[in-house]
Amino acid sequence: MEIGDLRHRITFQKHTTTINENGFEVETWEDFKTVWAAASNLHGREYYAAAAVQAENTVKFTIRYLTSLDTTMRILFRGKQYNIIAIDNIKYQNRFIEIKALEVGSNG
User: Fold this and answer.
1) In this structure, is the dihedral angle defined by the CA atoms of residues 56, 90, 13 and 26, taken in order, positive or negative?
2) Up-side HSE of residue 92: CA atoms within 13 Å toward CB?
3) Nearest alpha carbon to residue 6 among 101, 103, 96, 100
4) Residue range 57-74, pLDDT digits in tens
5) Structural domain includes residue 86
C-alpha cells in the first residue's frame, strides 16, 4: 500500500440517539472522523462470494490505522452511504485497516 493510493475522502459516522425539544428520542448519524482512503471494488473470489449473498455493491476501503472503529458505524463516500460489514487490521501491524462496506439500499 502506497500512501499516494489514499486519495479518496471518506467520513465515518456513528449512530446516536438524542432527545429532541419535545422530549422524544431521535436517532441520527453523527460524523465521527473524515480520513483519506483507497477505495476499490471487489474482484475475483471476493466478488463472487459477495454476489452469492446479493452483496455485489461492496466496496473495499483501505485507511491508515485508526482506533475506535466498529461495524455499527457507516461510511459516506461520493454521496452514498455504506454499512460496514468487516474491519481487518492488516497483518495486525497497526498500520493499515481494510474495511468492507455494503452500499445502503443496494441489496434490493
Assistant:
1) positive
2) 0
3) 96
4) 789 999 999 999 999 999
5) yes
Does the residue 108 lie in any domain? no
18 assigned to some structural domain: yes
* Span 38-66, average pLDDT: 71
- Tell me how far apart the alpha carbons of residues 73 and 92 are, in angstroms, rounded to a whole number: 21
Q: Model confidence over 78-108: pLDDT tens digits?
A: 999 999 999 999 999 999 999 999 998 754 4
Q: b vs e for 86-99, b when ≥16 Cβ sit within 10 Å of the residue's Cβ?
A: ebeeeeeeeebbeb
Q: How many Å apart are CA 104 and CA 31, to the nearest integer?
A: 17
Burial 59-70 (b: 16+ CB within 10 A, else e): bbbbbeebeebe
Number of domains in the chain: 1
Q: In the predicted model, is pLDDT for residue 14 greater than 80?
A: yes
